[in-house]
Specification:
- The chain is built from 11 helices and 18 strands.
- The protein is α+β, with helices and mostly antiparallel strands.
- The protein has a 4-stranded antiparallel beta sheet with strand order 2-3-1-6. Strands 8-9-7-12 form a 4-stranded antiparallel beta sheet, with helices on one face. The chain has a 4-stranded antiparallel beta sheet with strand order 14-15-13-18.
- Strand 2 and strand 3 form a beta hairpin.
- GO terms for molecular function: RNA binding.
- This is Splicing factor U2af large subunit.
- One of its GO terms (cellular component) is nucleus.
Length: 383
């Protein structure tokens, strides 16, 4: 037992922390309760949580908290994304099984930013979206640590191409607004890829309902088509909506001397889209369904009309069926061999095109494309 000089308090002894009013000194000595350490740490974790959480969407049904945590721990280590020291990067995982998304909480802000590079990575056979959560505050996060992935991450180690994760960032990112809400990702991609393959694509959806919000972002692999695609698609009517397509960063544009060439190419590409059937209209054109010989007999022709009417009604409000017939004199007739289905709205025609394209009919594979409404109204069936 140490000898204490008269008048010396425990706080004056070497190695003994000063007493806090209202607290027993032994509490500090044994580390049972130290608000000076615990409270700031808890406050720091809460304050940085929005910048440490990662939204992961598009999870397969088999995903659970453990498999998601193990996966992200492994891939973060593989790409060199762990910067907070040894150990696992993931602290916690919450999964919404109904909506097929998860929130993955990382142990540091920098590691969460590095995880942004994993957008599009394959998890149990499904490409998943890696995004910031809705409560992410960029201005607050900027003071907490890096907000962008480390450019030296080894993404190739997990099958990603450098730039693919950040494929939706940069001056060539395109905003696509005014999309009909019923358009699927595949339909939007089909429209955009008329100009070339995409490096990045995101159809923005409501996280509660999973429904499209009517706008998307994309980046082309060939950046030279960026302005051509914007000029060709902007202002196009899609059902009762009009597309707004522009660079997400309006300040980034082509030099003035290139504008004329871009507009010319855009006009040519828009014509190709309209003729080629990539732009949705209320009219669907089917080929490889009927032959000229089948249309010569009146009774057989009426049967075919009725069959197509019955089939077409399965997809929406069918207004008209047109099947051009051969002329008995042998004179050429435009559109012989094609079937035209006109719907009351683009919703019905879109479902019909999706449902009929690729189906087998009489041993042939049906080809379904959209047809320009103005040509159909003018009874021009040669497109």
């Amino acid at each position: 037992m140490p000898i204490v000089a008269p008048g010396v308090t425990p706080a004056q002894l070497p190695g003994v922390p000063p007493a806090i009013p209202g607290m027993l000194p032994n509490m500090l000595n044994f580390g049972q309760f130290n608000p000076l350490v615990i409270q700031p740490q808890a406050m720091t974790q809460q304050a940085t949580r929005h910048a440490r959480r990662v939204y992961v969407g598009g999870l397969p049904p088999s995903a659970n908290e453990q498999t998601v945590a193990i996966f992200f721990n492994q891939v973060m280590a593989a790409i060199g994304g762990n910067t907070a020291g040894p150990g696992d990067a993931v602290l916690n995982v919450y999964i919404n099984h109904d909506k097929k998304f998860a929130f993955v909480e990382m142990r540091s802000v920098e590691e969460a930013s590095n995880a942004m590079a994993l957008d599009g990575i394959m998890f149990e056979g499904a490409p998943v979206k890696v995004r910031r959560p809705t409560d992410y505050n960029p201005s607050l996060a900027a003071a907490l640590g890096p907000s962008q992935p480390n450019p030296n991450l080894n993404l190739a180690a997990v099958g990603l191409t450098p730039g693919s994760a950040g494929g939706l960032e940069g001056p060539d990112r395109i905003f696509v607004g005014g999309l009909p809400y019923y358009f699927t990702e595949a339909q939007v991609r089909e429209l955009l890829e008329s100009f070339g393959p995409l490096r990045g694509f995101d159809l923005v959806k409501d996280r509660e309902t999973g429904n499209s919000k009517g706008y998307a972002f994309c980046v082309y692999q060939d950046l030279t088509v960026t302005d051509i695609a914007c000029a060709a698609l902007n202002g196009i009517k899609m059902g009762d909506k009009t597309l707004t397509v522009r660079r997400a960063n309006q300040g980034a544009s082509q030099p003035r001397q290139e504008q004329e060439s871009i507009l010319l190419q855009a006009q040519q590409q828009k014509l190709v889209l309209q003729v080629g059937g990539a732009l949705p209209t209320k009219v669907v054109c089917l080929t490889q369904v009927v032959t000229a010989d089948e249309l010569r007999d009146d009774e057989e022709y009426e049967d075919i009309i009725e069959d197509m009417r019955e089939e077409g009604r399965k997809y929406g409000n069918l207004v008209k069926v047109v099947i051009p017939r051969p002329d008995p004199s042998g004179a050429p007739v435009a559109g012989v061999g094609k079937v035209f289905l006109e719907y009351a709205d683009v919703d019905g025609s879109t479902r019909a095109k999706t449902g009929m394209h690729g189906r087998k009919f009489g041993g042939n594979q049906v080809i379904a494309v959209f047809y320009p409404e103005n040509k159909f109204a003018a009874e021009e069936y040669d497109g």
